[in-house]
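Run folding on both entries below.
>entry_1
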Amino acid sequence: MSEPAGAAATTNQSVTMSARILGELAASSQPLGVSELARRLGESKARIFRHLATMRQVGFVSQEHSGD
């Protein structure tokens, strides 16, 4: 599927961040916490937390209740 001219300028930042988070989670052999995801992605813990909370609400990720 080819992208229309100027598609990069119209990319949704939230969708892009969610895809980056899911990519990191998929590539990891173990669960990752908010702090580790933030470090790997070069983002704030607050931003990663907000995205994870939304993805958890819609069933894209689950949370283990041990540690970060």
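>entry_2
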Amino acid sequence: MPGGLVTLLPATTIGAAVTGTTGVVVLAEGLKSLLVEAKFLYGADGTTLKVWVQTRVKGGTWRDVMNFAFTTSAATKWSKCSIEIALTAARATSDAALADDTILDGFLGSEVRIKYTSTGTYSGATSITVIAEA
């Protein structure tokens, strides 16, 4: 993945509420920064959609590093994380708990994935796409 573009979540229709759905695991060894674009196309209905970008050291515990929060309007959002910013020592892990539209700099492991949760039932052409560039 380093130095390239990758689809973390291809265009995915959002309908009935889901909890903790994950995407594919992408190998990201040598990752120094990660720029992510989340594109939410709103159809109708629904309440909230939250998307977390997570990372871990190979085989370890997943950790949130980005959150994108959407409601009932189309939006495209970007976030970037870098390992060059110091983290507080012995930082606790979080799984789908990072606050809306925030990042955690300083931690990028050797694997990356998406986890998302929605509330309410979206209809129409509601979808989410997430792409990243290292």
